Amino acid sequence: MTLPTSITAAAPAPDTASAAVNYARIVRRRWMLVALLAAIIVGCMLLDFTMGASGLPLAELIQTLISPGSADPTTRVIVWDIRLPYTLMAMAVGIALGLAGAEMQTILNNPLASPFTLGLSSAAAFGASLVIVLDLAIPGVPVGWTIAGNAFLFAMLSAMMLHGVAKWGGMNASGVVLFGIALVFSFNALVSLIQFVASADALQGLVFWTLGSLGRADWTTLGVLLAAFALILPLSMRDAWRLTAMRLGEERASSFGIDVRRLRLRALIRIAILSSLAVAFVGTIGFIGLVAPHIARRLFGEDHRFYLPGSALVGGVILSAASIASKNIVPGIIIPVGIVTSLVGIPFFMAVVFRRQLQ
Amino acid sequence: MLQLNSLQVAYGTRQIIADLSVAGLRPGTVTALLGPNGSGKSTLLKAIAGLNRLSGGQVLMNGDDLTHASFERRARQVVYLPQALPAAVHLQVFESVLVAANASAFGGPTGGKSVDGVARVDVTAVQSLLDRLGIGHLSMRYLDQLSGGQKQLVGLAQAMIRRPRLLLLDEPLSALDLNYQFHVMDLLRQETRENGLITLIVLHDLNIALRHADHCLMIRSGDLVAEGAPSQVITPATLATVYGVAARVEPCSQGVPQVMIDGLHADVHA
After folding, report:
1. Fewest CB within a 10 Å sphere: which of A26, A80, A264, B42?
2. pLDDT band at B26 (very low <50, low <70, confident <90, very high)
3. B76: chain A residues, CB-CB within 8 Å
């Protein structure tokens, strides 16, 4: 390290301007990376869209997409009611979980935090199991929505419990994480209990639900999830500077005028909505909320103006790619995507982690 | 002018500061806050910064009561630098300081000509502050690659970029080598004078306090024991009663008073 020879001379150093240029270049590079990830998602979605059990040729798919009226009814149903919602849902769930996980790891200052390691998916599975096995649904929910409705309700409930201990328990971040882990074990035990008393048929239905499948996607659920994401992303971005400051330490952030508790509560509500909807619509697809933020952090650094959208995009890429893989691992069979995300994602994740360790 | 009126702070039922008053710290002065471990120095700074809830008393800044001010309003005037070094996160030095400038609710990406969402004036202000702290060459390095002392300097930059009226620094020199300790103290004194800041620094090195501070507060168990010019506060008598050491304060060959410790004071725990 070299010291300025004269301390009192506060003359701007010659490289002041070049630092601004350097920084502008870094910012530009990050925007390009965002665009690249978006392009990869579109590519994955196109590929995903062309694949499926029906074996329709590419030309016919595109033709049906452009002018649905001219295609025959079967093809139209396959393209518009199965393929397209499926493909879009993969992307939508991916970006929702990517964003939720990124915010969660920041506000709880814990690299293991994610909607799935802190009980939201276990709670959702419990809610679903109440309907599937015991037929206990919330009154007033239309038939066909009872499983998703119950799953959403319980995921929200567990998120609100996390919120509650943070708000009224006065717990710090690590306390909230420990409470979340306690929730995972409690709800898992409750699900096991219900499985224990379930009939064989109900058990099969429940197991299939918990595997996580995009096959349940339809235009309504897709619309709800995308609308929620579109509403929540701008709110997250409004807190981007504050969330980045949280990474410097809680005391520091509050000394910069940030109400850390309020920030944490706002973020928890956003996380709760996104991840509860995702898990309610497609079942427990773990891993993305945990891994996407780590990959985004490596790619973008921790400036949340890039890290938050970056993590959402990485989540979208992972789930779109997993969706392609789920159609190809066993020919003719679509493996539930929840299984594939972990199997395909883990080698990728380990590569990121090991590369970091080696640096 | 910063004024503390019978400040009281408690953690649960444990009273840390019972009744502490300081008549007035003037703008343009560097005040050293001295005291042994556990005497309540950090607690006092956090209380002034509004990070600890007061159980009584007032913090007056130019007659304006900060005690009940909102987070944002207080953060515009006061910045507190915690004792802990900034976390080793994957942020570049430069952007971590930029974040500090933009972090608070009132800040946001500031006005002026924008370079990719960041005001140009901020970008140059950040770099020139880093240069003045002697870490301009580190600006594109990541925090998780820096040494402890370098991180401490970055933390200081994060506090200073906010241009507070009241700068509260909790042991800002603890990880710095001798050269940087002097450099930082000189810089703080210069900034304090030029901008009319009120700077309050927790220091452990009494010789640094003697040489660089304009004013001293010495506390023990949350009570103000002595206040005044450094050479009036740092005396064999206060060192014996507050720190429990037998010490001399004598001018060195250049006439600057120096503390020399001869041993533990005989009746420390009596």
Report:
1. A80
2. very high
3. 257
Backbone angles phi, psi at B10, to 5 degrees: -135, 140
For B146, which residue in chain A has the nearest alpha carbon? A1
How many Cβ pairs within 8 Å bridge chains A and B? Answer: 163
Q: Do A248 and B99 touch (CB under 8 A)?
A: yes
Angstrom distances, CA of residue A275 to CA of A218, A324, B54, B61: 18, 22, 39, 45
Q: What pLDDT was estimated at residue A293?
A: 93
What residue of B is the nearest CA neighbor of A29?
B116
Averaged pLDDT of chain B: 86
DSSP code for B92? B
pTM, two decimals, is 0.86
Chain A residue with CA closest to B123: the answer is: A20
Element (H, E) at B22: strand B14-25
**Chain A residue at shortest CA distance from B104:** A257
| Sign of CA pseudo-dihedral A102, A103, A104, A108 | positive
Side chain identity at A161, as an amino acid letter?
M
B26, B208 Cβ separation under 8 angstroms: no
Best to test chain A binding among B89, B113, B162, B194 (most A CBs inside 10 Å):
B89
Chain B residues with CB under 8 Å of A257 CB are 71-72, 74-76, 103-107
Where b means 16+ CB within 10 Å and e means fewer, B50-79 reads bbbebeebebbbeeeebbebebebbbbbbb
Q: Which of A16, A242, A256 sits opposite B131 (nearest CB)?
A: A16
CB contact under 8 Å between A258 and B179, yes or no, is no
B121 → chain A, closest CA residue = A20
- Rounded to whole angstroms, the Cα distance separating A6 from A340 reads 62
**Is the CB of B95 less than 8 angstroms away from the CB of A15?**
no
Give chain A's residues under pLDDT 50. 1-14
Amino acid B267: pLDDT: 58
Interchain pair B103, A253: CB under 8 A: yes
Q: How many helices (H) and strands (E) does chain A have?
A: 15, 0
The secondary structure of residue B240, as a DSSP letter, is I
Task: Give the span between the Cα atoms of B263 and B270, in whole angstroms.
Answer: 16
Token pair 């996607």: residue: A217
Mark yes or no for CB contact A297/B76 under 8 Å.
Answer: no
Chain A interface, best mutation among B73, B127, B158, by max A CB count within 10 A: B127
Tokens of A270: 């956003």
Residue B43 · residue B9 · CB < 8 Å: yes
Q: What's residue A356's pLDDT?
A: 65
DSSP string, B143-210: GGGS-HHHHHHHHHHHHHTT--SEEEEESTTTT--HHHHHHHHHHHHHHHHHHT-EEEEE-S-HHHHH
- Percent pLDDT > 90 in chain B is 45
Residues 6+ apart with CB under 8 A from B162: A256, B75, B79, B100, B101, B104
